Amino acid sequence: MRFASFLDSAAGRIFCNGFLPETGGGQGRRILILPPFAEEMNKSRHVLAAIAKRLAEAGHAVLMPDLYGTGDSEGDFGDAAIDLWRHDIDVAIERLPGTADVDLIGLRLGALLAADAASRHKLRSLTLIHPVLDGRQQLTQMLRLRLAAGLMGDGAKETAAELRQRLAAGECLEIAGYSLSPILAVGLESLSLADSPPVGVDALNWIECVIEDGRALMPASLRVLDAWSNAGVAAVASTVTCDTFWATQEIARCPALDARVAGLLAD
User: Fold this and answer.
1) What are the residue ranges spanned by the domains of the chain?
2) What is the pLDDT of residues 123-136, one digit of tens each?
3) d(CA 83, CA 212)
4) Nearest to 72 by CA among 19, 5, 172
């Protein structure tokens, strides 16, 4: 059964989509799904909803929040901050029905935030789907969008270094319809998978989407996983074949991803 509700959080109410088990005899997992960043979230909603529905059909309770300033939650994107998003995640976990340890799933930046949450919560499992490896990478991607848009205009050309200097000086930047604040930029740059391996997680899964069968994980991802292994953190890494649906112009689906996630969370 699908439901929607608002939860009171630190800066305002956050909107959550949820699914309750179709039957009462399910396995009773408590699952939180964290979305990607900015426009990637809009492109991914249908895929995350398909994953959530499949998990509910398997007997699990699932919650998907729009973090503060995003989606249908209160606040503007320019008011968002990593610390506020951390609090939103904590509130959503507290509101999951049941008492068992939580299963946390994150896509792209949501995966980075999910790994960050592992330091604050006892997790039954952590599933990272095509994760952004660090917040600096996400910030660089946003700045490139601004630079690309500038190439189409007749104004003065900007550089990434200049944009970073303007953020450091306290200026908000308008990028592809989103207001990127200096506070959010600083918070993003503080996040890194390599520097913060998720210790204490019972089951750790890493999934990457590849465009054709047989492709290996990205070299940068392998370096992070090697660093985790050296720190005593073991992850089960795998790939699924589908389009990078969070970045495609047209709506793209990934049924192989639904099946993979459901299989990993099956007892």
Assistant:
1) 2-134+192-264, 137-190
2) 999 999 999 999 99
3) 38
4) 5
Q: In this predicted structure, what is the pLDDT of residue 28?
A: 83
Mean pLDDT by 10 residues, the chain (267 residues): 92 94 69 97 95 93 97 97 98 89 97 96 96 96 90 74 95 95 97 94 96 94 96 96 93 93 90
Instruction: Tell me which of 3.30.465.60, 3.90.660.20, 3.40.50.2300, 3.40.50.1820 is the CATH number of domain 2-134+192-264.
Output: 3.40.50.1820
The predicted pLDDT at position 21 comes to 81
Which contacts of 45-50 are long-range, i.e. CB under 8 A and separated by 24 or more positions?
46/251, 46/253, 47/107, 47/245, 47/246, 47/253, 47/254, 47/257, 47/258, 48/107, 49/17, 50/253, 50/255, 50/258
Sort strands 178-180 and 173-175 into parallel, antiparallel or unpaired.
antiparallel
pLDDT in tens, 65-85: 999 999 999 999 999 999 999
DSSP E strands in 24-97: the ranges are: 30-34, 61-65
Q: Are 241 and 256 in contact (CB under 8 A)?
A: yes
